Fold this protein.
Amino acid sequence: MADHQLLGGYNSFTSRKQLTRCRQNPNFRVDQLQSEIARRRAFAIIAHPDAGKTTLTEKLLLYGGAIHLAGHVRARKERRATRSDFMALEQERGISVSTAALQFEYDGLVMNLLDTPGHQDFSEDTYRTLMAVDSAIMLLDAARGVEPQTIKLFHICRERNLPIITFINKMDLPALEPFALLDNVEKVLGISAVPLVWPLGSGRDFKGFFNLREKTVHRFERTVGGAQRAPETVSGIDDPTLRQILGEAEYHKFCEDITLLTEVLPPFDPEKFLRGTMTPVIFGSAITNFGVDYLLKQLKTLAPPPRPLFLDDGSLLSPTEPRFTGFVFKLQANMNKLHRDRVAFVRITSGRFERGMSVQLPRLKKEVKLASSVAFFGEERNTIDEAYAGDIIGIISPGLYRLGDILCQGDAPALKPLPRFAPEIFARIVLEDTSKAKQFRKGIAELTDEGVVQLFNLSDASPIIGAVGQLQLDVFRYRMADEYGAPVRLENLPYACSRWIAATDITKAGRFDKIVYDDQNRPVILFESTFRLRSFSEEHPEVVLHNHPPD
Ligand code: G4P
């Protein structure tokens, strides 16, 4: 069977017979709903670029049985990188774009791994993706510890109290001391870090790990290029060969570490983990596959199934509530140039999805039929017949949906709106070739709907776009030319921050650097520096400035 068939697993546990049984027997359906949802895990990997996210993703697929030989995803990434002279962009659009969510089955669980764009620059897309998961793997480079991008992503997870499993990668290369790494996580991120395993050696002599809970020694053998599962030998701590394998000095250090850990290590507390205040730590090496299987096992036992959501009206939405609800967290146009369509990625928050079902789209007060539902692997699409809370589905439509849209059976749940951020970089868009005005307008409309950038003064001939990271602007410019055939010039504007302001407050505000209007015609003040923003706030305490668009 082809790899992608295994990956497009939404339909793998759905047969027509099963569906008919569900419809005929409501009791069976409730049971099935609960057990299907209980086996869902939706998670993302957060990492600083180069920590090994692509490599780990692929190894999770290898150990999850979704691919049989590693090298596939990397090779794709490389092909894309070498094919283009715009490498950062192509990498950004590599696996992230075509596979917003990968699904694979592991030991009875349905794993939904959401891809967070892995570029240096921060983008709003990442925030939105993290709104659609129930837990995260924080991937660190063992030689670098916590890096700037890790900190930003960690804080988003913290805002959502997401449980985080830490995987310290590249232990096969010269690494920082394990105690120093734990200390680094605790000090920089302010989360208690509890190792579940302790590395056996490091660098070229990295042999595996000691399982601190089971008190077992796990030794691995490398396979050529890490393409296949690494053979693993499990023994007790009294294994006489351990001394020999580690060498005298390393063995003594290991014994000392274990004694120290036994004395000082706080017990791992699953409650604290679920609240996002404690992170279990695994030391491993994605490239040699050491620790990947253990990471998957921990995901299975520790990562939570879909959690009830606290709604804005104070009520709770249980994932097992039978009615279907979900929200659009990502939009992507032109995923396939042949199709020229748009895909809305929906995180299901409750109930069960069935292809062809009719649901409400409250923003438009309209009923829509969800007929074209797909999962992606690379360029290929697989139809999804059925999915459950915790799953991600792609809905193809010609531009009906917006970011943050709710889809539901019955009344709309009061889901918290997707966050939108006050942009920090601004540019005026100038169309290079005025004969492309139609394509220009279409491109701007679709890309701003997708949330690639935010649009201001849209009725101007040269509107303004804003973003929180430079790469968002680069992606916009690239896609306007590549996908819409409307090359644009971006003229940078000298503003460094922005705030929404109530229309009624404008007259109170006196002088300010610049005012623009967002896509809903809400006024936004642009400031040349955070210093000017601060002095404005001090001079006008009566004016309320908003970091997010006011309701
Ligand atoms: P990213 O998606 O987080 O940006 O990282 P990616 O997986 O692309 O990995 C970045 C580099 O780190 C790659 O090397 C990759 O092979 C290497 N790497 C990932 N995990 C490990 C590990 O556990 N041990 C070691 N030693 N290296 C690891 P590269 O030189 O950029 O690419 P390649 O030539 O190896 O393919």
Q: What stands out?
A: The first helix runs from residue 3 to 7. The chain is about 30% helix and 30% strand. The domain at 3-35+309-408 is CATH 2.40.30.10 (Elongation Factor Tu (Ef-tu); domain 3). The radius of gyration is 25 Å.
